Amino acid sequence: VPPDQMSNLLGSLLRQTKGVQLLSLKTLPVDPIIQPKTSEGGTVLVPKVNMFKHGYELKLEGSYLDLNNYLQELEKQPQQLLWQRATLAVGEYPKATLTLVFFTLSMDKDWLSL
């Protein structure tokens, strides 16, 4: 998923999935896949071509089944999201909070904020 299309994808899925409420959506700092290295002489070596990891943290609230439906719909999408972490916290039954950290890759370092 191109970084500039991520919020549209997540928003449309959220509108389609009943019983799920958005609590927060944050963009994470852009992270290069190949990290710069320092040579023995102290020169910083930056790769000429690199890919960049554009991450998001999405926090949703709903019942376990509604949150599970959201995840299933997200995984069915033709665009691919890469998962880093999913955390489920159950407060007062039947509400649960799902925090997802996922990312997409791009050759473009520029980041479009939500």
- Envelope shape: elongated
Unreliable runs, pLDDT <50, ≥5 residues? none
Structural class: alpha+beta
Per DSSP, the total helix count is 2
Give the helices and strands as they follow along the chain: HEEEEEHEE
Cα end-to-end separation: 15 Å
What does this structure look like?
With 114 residues, the protein is α+β, with helices and mostly antiparallel strands. It contains two helices and seven strands. The strands form two sheets. Strands 1, 2, 5, 6 and 7 form a five-stranded antiparallel sheet that branches. The protein starts with 5 loop residues before the first helix and ends in an 8-residue tail after the last strand.
How would you summarize this macromolecular structure in one to three sentences?
21% of the residues lie in helices and 39% in strands. By secondary structure, it is α+β, with helices and mostly antiparallel strands.
SSE topology sketch:
Layout: H1 6-16, E1 21-27, E2 31-32, E3 37-38, E4 44-45, E5 52-62, H2 64-76, E6 82-90, E7 96-106
Antiparallel strand pairs: 1-5, 2-5, 3-4, 5-7, 6-7
How would you describe this structure in keywords?
five-stranded antiparallel sheet, two-stranded antiparallel ribbon, 114 residues, alpha+beta
